[in-house]
Amino acid sequence: MNSNLRRPAFFVSDRTGITAENMGDALLEQFDGMKFKRTSHPFIDSPDKAHALVRIINHAAEESGIRPLVFSSVSNDEVRAIIKSAKGLHLSFFDAFLSELEQELGTTARHSVISRVQNVERYDARMEAVNFALNHDDGVSDKDLKEADVILMGVSRCGKTPTCLYLALQYGIRAANYPLTPDDLDSSDLPRMVKPYKNKLFGLSIQPERLHDIRQERRPNSTYSHINTCKQEVADAQAMFRRFGIPFTNTTHKSVEELAVSIMQECKLKRKF
Amino acid sequence: MNSNLRRPAFFVSDRTGITAENMGDALLEQFDGMKFKRTSHPFIDSPDKAHALVRIINHAAEESGIRPLVFSSVSNDEVRAIIKSAKGLHLSFFDAFLSELEQELGTTARHSVISRVQNVERYDARMEAVNFALNHDDGVSDKDLKEADVILMGVSRCGKTPTCLYLALQYGIRAANYPLTPDDLDSSDLPRMVKPYKNKLFGLSIQPERLHDIRQERRPNSTYSHINTCKQEVADAQAMFRRFGIPFTNTTHKSVEELAVSIMQECKLKRKF
Predict the structure, then answer these.
(1) What confidence tens digit (pLDDT) does each residue in B120-136 have?
(2) Could you give the domains of chain B?
(3) Closest CA–CA distance from residue B36 to any residue of chain A (Å)
(4) ipTM of the complex
């Protein structure tokens, strides 16, 4: 075994592979410092595709001299059996749990890919939420703000837009966002546009140093990006959140996923699909 | 057991719970027609929170009279052990796979939550891709179109925008989109704006009936939403895709996730983080 080589890690699915990837990532990051060569193989839903993948896995095993890891989420028994004939350690999600679940539920599972007929309601909820987020990005409109499930508030470039879009795409949540301008921050009151919706507000804060870095990318060496401006704006925004009892979180060390789930939890929002 | 009651299904995680939810959904949808009462419990990362959750699960077990299902993705051994003391069938992702993986890799895993220090590169790639998608939505600008990883092309309302945003958020892919107007469709050439980037184009098609429904929501009883308009535009768009050898897919029965993964695969795009 050549220790300079990274161990191959395959993520295999008969659908998108998002579950297999998430599962594999959660497990692999438990092993500090180890490096893996990851490849994803979605839509492996026929014996032919499975056989072709087996050849790829076996080739990787031979070439690297290291036994590959194969994380798989494949519901079809025949396809799964073919994949398991490849050289590797197989961590198969359906093998691990499906029979236990069948026993508990007292019935037999499908053991096949569900051809998800377009769920029109889900699509519509998602589209509506995405359009809402786009129409209410950066405080452009207070039209229909009463329809918002949540309104994210914070200084420019603190992470509002991607969080709103993620909430819309992942959960169908109608998330608007409102950027706190220097004028808003000088005022002792809540901004006029969002004042009627105080109970929907959620604040985003950020470390001034990180905000400075982000703003430098956008407008280098400007007052806008100066570290003192960043410090002042962040301090004023947090003071506003505290004064009006608006829940808030610091985005600096959080991923968009973590922010979205935290906001769902804090604001007691329910996914729409 | 009261068969009218839905069996409680808990999704438990010491992080966002997205993996536990995906895993649970993939398993539960294998059981046709069964109904479950789902609740998600993210950020269960301390013994106190675990004990509080055990009380909730036990209460659900007593109230429903049905043994709950507990899908969990919890890396900390102590927290996981507490959760497993709750009444229910526990499907624990780390229990199923971690020791096997430790053995294979010849090392001990962390068995603890990784405090993900903000991965600045990941955040920046994501932000850049989201901004790119927003700046190149609906063909508003051909500036920097040469920086695009992919350009989605299709008639109005066929699903371009959410797919672009999902590609940006999930994979850091810079996805632009270009709406085919009636003028574009009358022409025998590719639209001027995207012509220089023919090898980045990917087409989205849709069933005319579904397009009609979507457009009716937006502009009821208009020429734009008329079924004949929809049929003609879809036929013209597909003819254009075929004439210029542009790969395309039908969005009607696909989720945004499926579309995104298909496009990644077809265009050989690599995730940026």
Answers:
(1) 788 888 989 999 999 88
(2) 7-105 (3.40.50), 120-266 (3.40.50)
(3) 11
(4) 0.89
